[in-house]
Every structure is written in structure tokens, then in C-alpha cells.
Amino acid sequence: MDVSQYLDMFIEESKEHLQACSEQLLALENNPDDLAIVNEVFRAAHTLKGMSATMGYEDIADLTHKMENVLDAIRNSKIHVSTEILDVVFEAVDDLELMVQDIESGGDGKKDVSKLVDTLNRIEAGQPVNVMNEPAATAEEVSMEVVTSRGIPYDEFELTVISQSAEQGFNALEITVTLRDDCLLKVARVFMTFEILEKSGEVIKTVPTVEQLENEDFDQNFTIVLLTQEDAADLKAKVLKVSEIEDVHITHITDEYVQKYKQASLNTCDPEPSVVETTVVPVTKAATTNETPKETIKTKKSTTSNSNKTIRVNIDRLDILMNLFEELVIDRGRLQSIASELHNPELNESVERMTRVSGDLQNIILNMRMVPVETVFNRFPKMVRQLARDLNKKIDLEIVGAETELDRTVIDEIGDPLVHLIRNALDHGIEMPEERIANGKPETGTVTLRAYHSGNHVFIELEDDGAGVNRERVVSKAIERGIISPEAADTLTNKQVAELILASGFSTAASITDVSGRGVGLDVVKNTIESLGGHISIDSTEGKGSLFQVQLPLTLSIISVMLVELDEEIYAIPLSSIIETAIIQKSDILNAHNQSVIDFRGTIVPLVDLKDIFEMKNRSNEEDEFQSIVIVRKGDSLAGLVVDSFIGQQEIVLKSLGEYLQSVFAISGATILGNGQVALIVDCNALIK
Predict the structure, then answer these.
(1) Whole-number Cα distances in Å, 312 to 4, 240, 268
(2) Burial group, residue 422, by CB count within 10 angstroms (0-12, 13-18, 19+)
(3) CA-to-CA dists, residue 676 to 147, 335, 566, 685, angstroms
């Protein structure tokens, strides 16, 4: 059977099922006992398995089948949900997404996932995750490190220290502390325990390591090996006085115990010694595994998706429809121009009716091309979860307004800038949990991603309650890079300082990481957004957090413009950039720092003569007493564009200049007017510094 005709449908539905898996797995991490969520993931995986098997993509079917087995074991209570298990399932979803993307780009969807399949098989069999992929120890490694029956590793040096201390009258104690499940300040409790024990002896080892304890990289248990002359019962009583500690187990390491393990280290064929006949309380598994903290990644959406009566339409067909309608808009303008010249009442009436109908048709076609930003936002919860784990931070991600719609062309371009902003917020914005606690903040940082409509624009905001922009560090780096002068630094507002981080190559990262700090900076975000006819601004309060606001046009295809004349040539200025038009006397034009300026409602606004920009020689209106000005805006910056005259407002079709004219300064495209004349579209963002 020829299934190639179903390929597009397979790809789209596979993406939907994998997205559903990601969303439900995130929900499952926060509600591990909710079997309804497990069933939802299972159904999505089961459907994907059947689809891929039918289409002949066996690798996808096999991997999905293994993932399905793990989910089935969870819902039948054979294994219990944990962060480590979910990490593996998420990895499987990531690989499946890569395989589907490979098929979409013309590949066969094959990928070597043998290690992942083996891990999934081990999980299904109930084996612990943390020892799945560990290689077997070599004979040399066994002789260097001996693992006791309790799971705590000692090397030869540590065993020698314990033996010598015993000869000098010191006791070697393994002290295992169990914190309460509702303990909020785990690092603080570890510090208080250390403070007590270090007054009573010498700490020679901890499990997990000191660094992991400081980073809160453990569950509810930790073990300290102490050399002391104090009584074990007294030490236990002291430690139990620390609040939020549930229990303390102390094990005495005898000299006989040490000698048997030293002997075991020499016997590479049989490294496991016999169990020592002492009062040994086994350390729990949680204390001996280096588990990463379970980040609280919550996704809050203002609305839930509802099933609608829809059909799938290939996007290429919508593009063709849009191109045809653009031609219709051009012809509509031509008819309006002819009708105004002929002054025929019947023709005028027909043209007006056609204008109304085509206007309604325009709205319908544009709405057909509108896509919810949810299609972009959906990728972020899983990304934030992984980044939070990599950074050892706790993040609460909130998504608001995911149903807000944008034109498909804008949606295609906005994903990467948002990824960069989110990575920047997590790496530079949100502080480490212990730092947040020290500053009186909740240890879990909050990042809010919201979208909403306002007029003919869509606003996307990314807000965090992190450290904010450090004015001193940013100003210092900006002066070092030559972006600003030391004299100008003192005059900048906090908002202006915050927006310095958008400068090219600007980065305050102390070191290069996989998350950010490679010196690329946020200028990539700024350039991409401005190329879409949008704008980005930053508000930040040091110690409180930052707000990144992105303003985007609803569509890039048909825009409203102000037509102006320059030496009998017509140019178009987008209305989205215009504040006001004005006619001023030339005597009102002032000079400041070799720049022509005007006083616009109490604000000094620089003038930009478009004839100079476009190198026009004709100065036909130089003796005119008045000057036509178009006040345009880019964020908080204003400029006055000097033109010969205003023609009027009009909706126009934005056409690209093509590959050979992409670098033309201050021109973003062109349009065909009703009289057949070509008008260039002015890029106001390029004219304002």
C-alpha cells in the first residue's frame, strides 16, 4: 500500500501527540500519583506507535513501544514515578521528536537509540535508574575504592585515617541525618548540623559531597563521617535539636570493620567482604545517591484547549491564497484611483461595495493565517525544566495568554528570540535557591510568559522575579566595550542602562556556560524582532526582577501606511511607527551638536532629511517657508522625518526587494500603488539610533 500520500498528516499528528506527551509528563511530575495523567500519556504514545508502524517507521514504533511499556508499568503500580524515571522518558520523547523532524526533512527517521531502549527495559524491570548506565568497575578501580555493605565508598587513604585515629582514642562514626519531608531550608539544616559536629570532632567524608550539599543536590538524607571522642548518644541528642530533622542514625566503624574492608580491597576477585557483626544501621538509598533536586516546574495556562470542528489545510495553499488576494488589493487601489478621476456615481458605488466586500475577505484570509502563540509557547515548559536541573535552580514557569494569535510568518520567526530570552532569564535573572532565601525571597523563582493583543499589535512579555539588571556591572561593561562614555553613564536612567544589554556582543557573564554567556548577547533578539517590524524594551529593578516586552505587528503581508512625496517620488511610512504629522515653520528648526532639531511638545526631536538619506539632488522646496514633518518612534526614541508633502493613508501589500537588494539602507520593501507606480517603504527603525 502506498502511504506516501499520508506523510504530511503523519508528521502533523506525530508532532501533536509528542507535544501532548511533553505537556502531560510535566503535569505528571507535579502529580506523580495521578493515574489519569499516565493514561493520557499512554494513549498518545500508543497512537503514535500504531501510526509509525503503519507508515513503516519501525525505529519510532520500537522506541514508542518501550516507552509505552514503562508507562504501563507505572499505571499498574509496578514502578513508582520519580524525577529520574521521567528524565529518561523525556529523553525518549526528545529522540522521537528528532526522528519525526528527520522524516519531515526527507530522511528515513532512523536513529541509534539502543542505549535508551536498554535503559527503558531496566526501568520496566524495576531496576534503579541511577546505576543503569554505570560501567562495571575494573580490577584496578576496585582496589582503589571499596564500597561498604551500606553503600558508602571509602578509599585506602580514608581507611588508614580511620585506623590511625582509633589508635589515638578517636571513634569513627557514620552519622546519617534524615530531614522531614516538608523541610523548606535543607541547606540551612545541613549547615547547622555541620556546625554542631565540627565542634565535636573532625569531618573526614560526606555523602553526598560537600559541594552537592551546598547546592542542595540531595533528597532528604545525608551522611557525615566524623572522628570524635564524644559519646554517640550525646551527638545524636545535639543534632536532633536542629529543627526539621526527623531522625539521626549513628553507626560505629570498628577497627575490625576497617581491616576486613582493607583486605577486601586487595582481593579483586571478591571485593565484597562479609558483613561485620556490629550494630550497623543501613543508610537509606536516598542518602547514597546523588539525586538532583526536583524542580517545581508548573505550567499555568489561562485557558484549556477545546476541540473544534476543523480541517487540515496545507500552509502552501494559504500562501497562494494570500498572494492572490494581495494582487486583488493592488487592483482595488487601481479601481479607486480611476473612480476618483471619472466622478461616475455608479462606478463609485460599485467600487465602494467592492472595497467593503474585499475588506471583509481580507479579514477572513488574515484570520485563516493566524496561529495561536501556544504553538511556540508549548516547547518552553520542558526546556525550562531541563535548564533548571542543569543550573540547580527551582523555577515556576507561568504561561498566560497562549491563545493569543499571530500571523504564521511572525510565528515562524519569533521562536528563537524567545528561547534566547528565556535562557537569559534562567541563567542571569533567577538566583540560586540559597541566594534567594538569603535575600528574603521564596527559593523557587517565577518566570511569567504572557501574550496579549493591543490595537494592531501583539505584545509578548517575559517577566521574572530574579536579581534584575546590575547597573554598576552593565555600565562598567558598556564603558569597557566603548558603547558609552564614562561621562554619559551618569546621565542614563535605569531603563536606559537595562537596554544596554541589547547592544551587539554585550554579555556580563563571568564564565561561558552551555546555557548562555558566550558573548553573543541579546542583540540577536533585538535584530530579529526589528526585522519583523517590532520593538523590544526592558524594565528592570535591581534585586526585584526584569520585564522584557516585545511588540509585534499582527501581520507582515498587508500594512497601513502614510504615503509621502519626495521630489515627485512616492514613499510609504508604516503607520505603526508614526506618532504624528506636522507642518512647521523653518524658523522653528534649531541646531544642536551639528544636528537639526525641533521642540516637539517640550521634547527635543532630531530631524532626518529623507532627501539626504536617499541622496536626492533636487531641492525644489528649499525656498518654502514651511516644512512637512512625520514624527516617528522607535521605543522611547523619536525622530522627525522631513518630506515634501503628505499624500494620505492607504493599505498596501508589502513586497520583498529580493535577494540582491536586501542590504538597501532604510528601505524594508516596496509596494505597487493603484496607478501602477512602485513606492518604496521606509524602515523607520534604521533611521533612529
Answers:
(1) 17, 64, 65
(2) buried
(3) 85, 11, 18, 27
Distance in Å from the first CA to the final CA of the chain? 61
How far is CA 502 from its chain centroid? 17
All residues at 6 or more sequence positions from 644 whose CB lies less than 8 Å from its CB, including other chains:
564, 565, 566, 567, 620, 621, 628
pLDDT for the residue numbered 592: 83
Active site residue 593: no
Is a pLDDT exceeding 60 seen at residue 73?
yes
What single-letter amino acid sits at 469? V
Q: What is the dihedral of CA 184, 187, 192, 195, to 10 degrees?
A: 180
Residue 383 near residue 420 (C-beta atoms within 8 A)? no
What pLDDT does 280 receive? 32
Active-site option among 29, 40, 68, 124: 68
Q: Taking the CA atoms of the chain, what radius of gyration do you get in angstroms? A: 33
**Is the CB of residue 174 less than 8 Å from the CB of residue 251?**
yes
Nearest CA to 534 out of 575, 577, 581, 496 is that of: 577
pTM of the model: 0.57
Alpha-carbon gap, residue 636 to 463, rounded angstroms:
20
d(CA 468, CA 474): 11
Rounded distance, CA 473 to CA 477, Å? 6
Q: Per the residue annotation, which of 12, 13, 39, 46 is the catalytic one?
A: 46
CA–CA distance, 166 with 168 (Å, rounded to integer)? 5
Q: Which H/E stretch holds residue 259?
A: helix 255-266
Residue showing cell 532629511: 609
Band (138; pLDDT cuts 50, 70, 90): very low
Parallel, antiparallel, or unpaired for β 171-179 and 245-253?
antiparallel
Confidence of residue 497 (pLDDT cuts 50, 70, 90): confident
Instruction: Report the run of H or E that residue 596 belongs to, with start and end.
Output: strand 595-600
- pLDDT by residue (tens digit) across 328-350? 888 888 888 888 888 888 888 99
Q: Write down the catalytic residue from 424, 461, 499, 535.
A: 424
pLDDT of residue 664: 81
Pair 392, 186: CB distance under 8 Å: no
Quick: pLDDT tens for 213-272: 887 888 888 999 999 988 888 899 889 888 888 889 888 887 767 766 656 555 544 443
User: Is residue 68 annotated as part of the catalytic site, yes or no?
Assistant: yes
Give the DSSP letter string of 65-127. Answer: HHHHHHHHHHHTTSS---HHHHHHHHHHHHHHHHHHHHHHTT-------HHHHHHHHHHHTT-
Cα 558 to Cα 123, 242, 318, distances in angstroms: 54, 67, 15
Query: With bands split at pLDDT 50, 70 and 90, how would you rate the model's confidence at 688?
Result: confident
Question: In the annotation, is 252 catalytic?
Answer: no
Q: Which three cell numbers stand for residue 179?
A: 530531614
